[in-house]
Design a protein that fits this description.
There is one protein chain. By secondary structure, this protein is α/β, with parallel strands linked by helices. It folds into 2 domains: about 120 residues, 2-Layer Sandwich (Nucleotidyltransferase, domain 5); about 170 residues, ATPase, nucleotide binding domain (Nucleotidyltransferase, domain 5, 2-Layer Sandwich). The protein is about 40% helix and about 20% strand. Strands 3-2-1-4-8 form a 5-stranded mixed beta sheet, with helices on both faces. Strands 11-10-9-12-13 form a 5-stranded mixed beta sheet, with helices on both faces. The chain has a 3-stranded antiparallel beta sheet with strand order 5-6-7. Helix 9 links the parallel strand 12 and strand 13. It starts with a strand and ends in a 7-residue tail after the last helix.
Length: about 325
Amino acid sequence: MSSYGGIDLGGTKIQAAVVDEDNTVIGSARRPTPTSGGPAVVAAEIEQALRDAAKAAEVEPAELAGVGVGSPGVIAEDGTVTSARNLPDWEGSFPLAATLSAALGTEVKVGNDVQVATDAEFKLGAGRLYSSLLGVFWGTGVGGGLILGGQPWTGRGGAGEIGHMVVEMGGARCTCGRRGCMEAYAGRAAMEGHVQRLVGKGSKTDLFKLMKEHGRARLTSGIWARALEHGDKLAQQVLDRAVVALGAGVASAVNLLDVEGVVIGGGLGIRLGHPYAARIEQAMQPHLFNDNRPPHVHVAALGDLGGAIGASLLLRPTA
């Protein structure tokens, strides 16, 4: 029986999985995404994460039928990645597929991280009931994936950038350099920057204390969740602001596409779970044009492994 590798490359973590032909995970591993060093360093860490997952599955990387990678940025057909802004020092283009293929000794295909995770939810998870689906992956940034008429919709290669829908004209500065994007309010990286500015003006929070206590270099999804458990008022305030932005942005996408279902995933989406999916659904309602027939909103059913499982499907286009 053939087995396949899958990598979910995120802003804070690299999740690797090895799956069999039935899409059952038989080995997995996770490593933190490097905070500096650029694409070559990130590629080396991806390689090691896949080797760890293959070891857990008791296979050699070269024995895999192939490895799929879900990556941020603009993905060329040859697996070159450009504009992966939520990754450290990723300037210009980098031949990610070719680099990993040479290192691992097997075929490597690269797809957009959020689109492959949306594909996985459509085929195997919370989106199985629908022929049209919007995946909203709330993590370091806010990414979107689309299924229209039962097929992935990638446009000319850059579709699904829901995080850069404008929710406030002339609003907060986004990590992309523009103003008013949904990601400027809801992306984990932008939220961290916002907290730092508020602390600089005298606001109090335990977020950075918790970050140090847990040995993290960034305010990960887990740190946000712990701050909520501690009753941290500033963390709650910043998350409330994010939910308002998510409601407006997701509703605007629904107004354009009229999809049947919305799946909320990503590090924050999965960690905060059903209560926050319900809050996003509620925040969408005032902005929906067709408000008597809203889409169904779900939490990603495949959890943290969904992106890696989806990446493995790149090797099996008919799966």
